[in-house]
Every structure is written in structure tokens, then in C-alpha cells.
Design a protein that fits this description.
Elements: E1 8-13, E2 16-21, E3 26-28, E4 33-34, H1 35-49, E5 56-62, E6 72-74, E7 86-90, E8 93-97, H2 101-109, E9 112-121, E10 129-135, H3 144-157, E11 163-166, E12 172-177, H4 184-201, E13 206-207, E14 219-222, H5 269-276, H6 289-295
Parallel strand pairs: 13-14
Antiparallel strand pairs: 1-2, 3-4, 5-6, 5-9, 7-8, 10-12, 10-14, 11-12
Helix pairs in contact: 1-2
Length: 296
Amino acid sequence: MCAAKGKKGVVIVEGCEITVSNPDKYLWPDQQITKADYLSKLAALSPYLLKYCDNRYLTTIRWPNGIDGKSFYQKNCPEPTPEFVSTASLDGIDYVNLDSLPTLLWLGNLACLEFHPSFNYINDPLPAEWVIDIDPSLEVEPRIMEAAYLVGEVLDSLKIQAVPKTSGATGVQIYVPIERGITFDELRKIGQFIGEFLVKSHPNLFTIERLKKNRGDLIYIDYLQHYSGKTLSAPYTPRARPFAPVSTPLKWEELKMGITAQDFHLFNIQERLHTYGDLIQEVPAQNLYSILQHLK
């Protein structure tokens, strides 16, 4: 795919015509990432990002004037809508189904810089995976990787295989592929058990207090975020933050190496994927019924 020059250009991708407006506009000014650059990097990310957005209800965050400008959430599919864009209706909202590279680049041209898919597939009430969100109360939290590692130790003690990933912002998420059939409510029961155990074991580090004003400097184990109708940053989505970070799956040992979310960004994510591939795909679907039965 070549970058269009001037105020407007057209690219042909998989037989679909996509108009690119203002290709030279900076979306990440400090990193000098133009819209044309961004579309090229999205195309490279697409085999990985689409895997976690296809067949889901998609919410995007748009930054028409780049990350230094104003932003807004977009749930309804933008109009006019090209014929190649698929949509799915839910509760009166026509969501984009991000199922193709042309659709991804069309959204990229609209300055959609973040992609937040639903936790369930379209027309399916069951969760597609299980995600535990680890959310710091402080904007700068040097303990966040330690906290994620401790969550991983508990999961390992329960014989649950999982993959940590940076949110690309301040938090870390623990991603667990699951066997089909378990419900959101059942996953919340397991999440609550893990959260309460960690709060009891590390009271100076963790909390499950829902109100942020009551958390102090504790790290929130958000087992409630994973539910029907809610979203979270997709693996491999860019984030509209300084240094152009990308939500990136990690190896457990990396959590002890002093890394930060800003270490993984649009400039080096392709090299990492070439080296490691998609770490989430290496974990088989987990059977959680024995744990759930024990909790019952």
C-alpha cells in the first residue's frame, strides 16, 4: 500500500477503494507519525489486530486532529458507510464489524486510533475469552508489573494458563483463552475469588474497591469489567498516548525485567511479532469448570 500525497488520495486494498484525506496530517506529532504512516502500520498489524476484533461489536476512539486534539467515542458506524463495511445491530446501535483490512484502513483514515471490541461475539451471549483488568490508581505506578506477576502466580497455582498484556496505557490485563460454555457471571465468581485472595495476601498492594476515590494508591483488580456490553483495548490496538504505544502480549518473565507499556509501540511492534508471534495463540483454551465447581 502506498501513501497518498497532497490533501487527498485513493488506495485500492483487496479490491476496495479507500479515500485517504489529509495523509500528511500528524496523528502523533512528537513521533512525527502521519496518517499515511499510521495506515501503513495498521496494515502491518492487521493479521493480529483483526483476530481480536472480527465478529465483535466494535467501539473506537477517534482523534480527528491527532492525540493533542479532542477525542470522542464512536459506537455507531460512521456515515457515509462504504459497501465493504459490515455492521451488526445491538440495542439500537449499528456497530462496525471489523472483519477486513479495508474496513480497518477506512477507520484509520477517520483517525480511529484505538479499537475496543466487545468481550462476546456478535449474536452470542457467552464470553469469547476471560480478561482480568489490573488498573493502577496512580497515573505512574512502578508496581504494576509486579502486581500482574502476582496475579499470574495465583492463576498458575490454579492450573490456569494465561498471557499478560499491556493495555498500552497505564494498566495490564491478564488474557485467558477459555473453552466455550462458561458464562460471564461464572467468570465473575472466579475473578472475585482471585481478587479477594490477593487483597488478603497483599493488602498494601491490591484492592477490589469499585470507587476510585476510596482506593488510595492501591492497584485495582477489576474482575467486573469483563461482562457483556463492556469493552477493553484489543490486543495489538494502538493507543492515543505519547510514544504511540501498542497493547502488547508479554512473556511472564518480562514482567520482572523493568519493562513499561511505552516499550512496545508502533515503531517496534512488527519486529516483536516477527520474533515471538502472537503469544496469546500459544495458550490452549482453558477449562475452568473444576474451579467453578469448587467455588460452588
